[in-house]
Amino acid sequence: MTGHAVDESTIFETPLLELELGLESDASVYAKAEWFNLYEAPHGGGSIKSRIAKGMLDGAEERGDLEPGVTVIEPTSGNTGSEVARLATARGYDVEIVMPDNAAGGKVEAVRDAGAEIHFVDADLGYDAVIERCEEIVAADPDAYYRPNQYENPDNPGTHERTTAREIHAATDGGVTHFVAGAGTGGTITGTGRGLTDLSDGAVEIVGFEPEEPLHAIDGLKYLRTGDHYHPETYDESVLDRKLYVTTDDAYERARALRERYADEPVPIADAGQYDLETIREHLRVDGQFVVGTSAGAGAAAVAALDAAGDLADDDAVVFMLCDRGDKYADIPLWEEYL
């Protein structure tokens, strides 16, 4: 199988935006627009998972774990699957993706567009069932498959430690005081948290957040608060200084508030990363609207919760992640009335 050509040079060095969240404090709030990874890819550009897809595939090839003729397989709620599919098929591998049957339409179409085979799992069985189905497929013919395994692969947090952390530190001139990220695999908060802790000698507060409810609709995040749920090895909670819990309603409300806030005003660009301003403006919006994904709204809600608790000072600089763009979610309640 050979997928579409992919320009991997567009991965990393994403733009940093400065956003107004209506906080009580005068803290500066910045957000990394992660769909600029593979920004020209169809169905919403890339995502924060473009980083780890490249990191895991690079690592596997360098170690000899992934060789020609082997099929790449990965369980996913959508973004990791689409990014693994895009990169791996472009490198000449067959790809199979296991995902819940309620995954956002834009993510499903991105996987299909890459030419990967999809195994759907009944979403009512829970996300752990997606992982279990993938394990069953691999167990039936172990030599035929390579599974990057975003939930256990150290190249997941390792990629964020090497890239995301350094980008944030450089783009804020070392001024970042708080880093806020959600936990799905935990790779972003673990790796970026480690990197920023090292770069700042422990001065950055690392704040993780998880869904409040087990039946939530914040794509990409795992409910781990109670019960017997699979806990990713890539999620090292010792890196966190604090953990927050976010509801789906708050996540959606905050995402929509960003759309309204920048309906008639340009979104300030604090650092362009590797891109020129014209490219950023062209790919920042969808149909003229500033729409972000569900986990981005959750990140904004977590920042607002920190502020409401009185934990942000006027001279603080907070960074969170806009993991993907909203057009991946045109068929779910977040944006179905808008796109």
Automatic annotation (TrEMBL):
Domain Tryptophan synthase beta chain-like PALP residues, every copy: 10-324
Pfam families, per database record: PALP
Record's protein name: Cysteine synthase
Species this chain originates from: Halorubrum ezzemoulense
